[in-house]
Amino acid sequence: MSHAVLPGPTPEERRAALRALLASGRTVIAPGVTDAAGLRLVEEAGFELAYLTGAGLANAQFGVPDVGLISQREVADHVQRLAGATGLPLVVDADTGYGGPLSVMRTVRLLDAAGAAAIQLEDQVLDKRCGHFDEHHLVSAAEMTGKIEAAVAARGATGPLIIARTDARGVLGLDAAIDRARAYAAAGAEVIFVEAPRTVEEMRTIGRELAGVPLVANIVEGGKTPELSVAELEELGFGVALFANYLMRSMMHAGRDALAHLRAKGETRSRAELLLPWADRQSLFGLAAYTEIERRYAGER
């Protein structure tokens, strides 16, 4: 567990931990988070990795859909807050990198400084859309390859890992998506993410054709990709099982029920057993550790 005022793993240690997870030969679960409270829940639950979801960030922090409205600086500022609230490696969805190669390089440096363990870049045009929406528009494979090379150059020897996502399946078909994925890996991306395959057989093909490179499977409840279990994804050759908005949507569903109760009943007492207990809330955010530090440096020994 890490806090803003408590020591935790360095960025380099978190990146090394992520590399070790990817090399472990097992499928690692990456729950998506939108804020520090969700991140603390992910850490408390015993997960080894967290994913800052771009769609969730747009929804939960700005109240807008995932259509490319969030800026480079807004994402970097949020990553800095989240990285200070956890000891886990944090994978950051950086959309398109917010422009061409120069913008990508600045994005990588900002997110490196903010504490990202890995940075995900995708091959849509700047005004991107959620991978499980329709009507995507792509940059050329050559342009995306150049952006990946720029990202690798910007991060240096100890910077974040680069994850390359292609949305080509829905625009050009699976074969083109796999061709792009190979080119992106050759350009220096350490992890590959073929977004929104439509069937289990397509997922099996991705795992077979891209074997040897860590692969991300994005499970979007109600989306285009089959909702497989982690064990099934491991059998298909995926090293990261991403559940990007499961936590956010679960919390929103619970929140909707809670507010309906308050509106209808005008009280919360009868629903107390569904709330996180007071003591658990304070424990989740490390109150005892903060109190001990405050006393130590205030001379209260």
UniProtKB/TrEMBL annotation:
One protein family per Pfam: PEP_mutase
Protein name, as recorded: Oxaloacetate decarboxylase
InterPro entries with a match to the protein in the record: ICL/PEPM, Pyrv/PenolPyrv_kinase-like_dom, Pyrv_kinase-like_dom_sf
